[in-house]
Design brief:
Elements (H helix, E strand, L loop, with lengths): L14 H9 L5 H15 L6 E4 L1 H17 L10 E5 L26 H8 L3 E6 L11 E2 L3 E2 L1 E2 L2 E5 L5 H8 L5 E6 L5 H7 L2 E4 L19 E6 L2 H11 L35 E4 L10 H14 L5 E4 L7 H23 L6 H11 L3 H21 L5 E5 L15 E2 L2 E2 L8 H7 L5 E8 L5 E7 L5 H15 L12 H6 L14
Parallel strand pairs: 2-3, 2-8, 11-12, 11-13
Antiparallel strand pairs: 1-3, 4-5, 6-7, 8-10, 9-10, 9-16, 13-17, 14-15, 16-17
Helix pairs in contact: 2-3, 5-6, 9-10, 9-11
């Protein structure tokens, strides 16, 4: 069977291409699932991205999907497409550990809402993707499954906390994957692995698991290899579901329509005013990344009406985010750290211990500063359509380094300070995406962050898709591809010192 273009395996097809071929009976869901399984078995020993697998369940689901296709029944938008689910998200009947020793043998009996949504759309859940313990730390390693390596250099970090999803996408293990984001956990692994990750406006993708339901820091979202594929997945996730208090509704009316996100809207880049910043005025961006970003800006600036080096006033972001993040960790993990400290890793313990040091006045100060920052951003976006920045402050480092303790010789404030370019956006609740723009000077993927105005999810996706298309024809700026043959012959990552645990 011929698939067209340079694609040689079904698993390398884009999600949209694969869905079209399945719908027109030129590709079966079983062929696609088998291709993804073969890719996992070939390259995952070197990477450890797809940590819990349900190949037999996927084969049965694919057979059922093909029967539906043959009958001529209505097909969902993800019909027959294999999906990787981040191991923070419950999948009924599938081992779901959250990267925690406390839940090493946990098997939920019910899908989380986001998983149920993609299933209803026809997706086939192929397996769970690795994550740091409870998503903390943005370096995908834990004491249950071990470390996940970067597909461009398995000795280096895949970032996180959606690191397994990023790796699985970059290597063709699945065409689509789910993720979540507090301090950049959709955007950071997208940048490190050369794929696309989108942090939506809080409430756009309903979450039924946040212990602090009105806290907007943590969101769920989609990951894919390109922006149109990401939009396809996103469209199956959005809803007005009352399980999430941030999914604000108007009684009797639908606020969030899947059709609004199913594909990127047309975008005239030449009509847009863009702000460019390497650091939002405070992020500890390493010199190497600043230089790469400057070259990218030189390439893309002529595409816009105006391109200015400027940013919103972000003073106070570090402290506000540190306090509010620690409060979230107290809500989720205080009891576990108190009762079973030996079963909880250092990043989670550090956040809980930090949270216990804060008083009500500290939290009040952080909430007030968050509001000031929000208002600063609203004033800024009266003059600009989007902001672009690097997605991450540094190039991937070895996964043996639990977190970057220093950047360009300067000590970082916290174990997550290196995520400041991402949490600058998190704290104000704006939508943002990371798209791949070639390689940095060390041969690792470089991610460009595009940030939109309040509620401007569709605008961010439109700009990202237009930029992606404009940059795709240049080998220096197109999405980079890992060397699959090298990965297939690489030593298993499980044999590397320090693979399991945190030390």
């Amino acid at each position: 069977m011929a698939y067209g273009g340079p694609v040689t395996e079904p698993c390398d097809l884009s999600a949209r291409e694969a869905r079209f071929l399945i719908g027109t009976k030129r590709l079966s869901a079983r062929e696609l699932v088998e291709s993804c399984i073969k890719r996992i078995e070939t390259v995952d020993p070197a990477l450890n991205a797809m940590v819990a697998r349900d190949f037999e369940g996927a084969r049965k689901a694919a057979a059922a999907a093909d029967a539906t296709t043959q009958r001529g029944d209505a097909l969902g938008p993800l019909h027959g497409l294999p999906v990787g689910v981040k191991d923070l998200e419950n999948v009924a009947g599938m081992r779901t550990t959250y990267g925690s020793q406390l839940f090493a043998d946990h098997v939920p009996d019910q899908d989380q809402a986001i998983v149920a949504s993609v299933r209803r759309a026809g997706a086939i859940i192929l397996g769970k993707t690795n994550t740091p313990e409870w998503g903390a730390g943005a370096n995908t390693r834990n004491a249950v499954y071990g470390a996940t390596g970067n597909p461009f250099d398995p000795s280096k970090s895949a970032a996180g906390s959606s690191g397994g999803s990023g790796v699985a996408l970059a290597t063709g293990m699945v065409p689509l994957a789910t993720g979540s984001d507090t301090g950049g956990s959709l955007r950071n692994p997208a940048a490190f692995n050369g794929i696309v990750g989108f942090r939506p406006t809080p409430g756009l993708v309903p979450s039924d698991k946040r212990p602090l339901g009105w806290n907007p820091l943590s969101v769920l979202g989609p990951m894919a290899r390109n922006v149109p594929d990401l939009c396809l997945l996103l469209s199956t996730m959005v809803s007005d579901d009352a399980c999430d208090p941030l999914a604000t509704t108007i009684h009797g009316k639908t606020v969030r329509n899947a059709a609004d996100f199913a594909q990127p809207a047309p975008c005239d880049l030449a009509s847009l005013k863009v702000a460019m910043t390497p650091d939002f005025g405070f992020a500890p961006t390493e010199k190497h990344i600043r230089a790469v970003f400057a070259r990218v800006c030189k390439t893309i600036a002529p595409l816009f009406a105006t391109a200015d080096e400027t940013s919103p006033d972000c003073r106070g972001t570090d402290e506000a985010f540190e306090i509010l993040r620690a409060v979230s960790f107290l809500a989720s993990f205080h009891d576990r750290v108190r009762d079973t400290p030996d079963k909880v890793g250092p990043n989670v313990r550090a956040n809980v211990e930090e949270g216990l040091r804060y008083a009500a006045l500290d939290i009040t100060r952080a909430l007030k500063q968050q509001t000031i920052l929000y208002n600063n951003w609203q004033s800024f976006f009266r003059h600009y359509d989007v902001i672009v920045s690097p997605a991450v402050t540094l190039s991937p480092r070895p996964w043996t380094e639990l977190f970057p303790a220093a950047i360009d010789g300067e000590k970082t404030r916290t174990y997550f300070h290196w995520l400041a370019l991402a949490y600058a956006v998190t704290i104000v609740g704006h939508p943002a995406i990371s798209i791949p723009v070639g390689l940095d000077d060390l041969g690792m993927p470089f991610g460009l962050q595009i940030v939109g105005p309040r509620g401007g999810d569709a605008k961010v996706l439109a700009v990202a898709a237009a930029l992606e298309e404009a940059l795709a024809s240049n080998p220096q700026t197109a999405r980079p591809l890992p060397d699959l043959q090298r990965l297939a012959s690489a030593a298993p990552i499980a044999t590397q010192p320090g693979f399991m645990g945190f030390d």
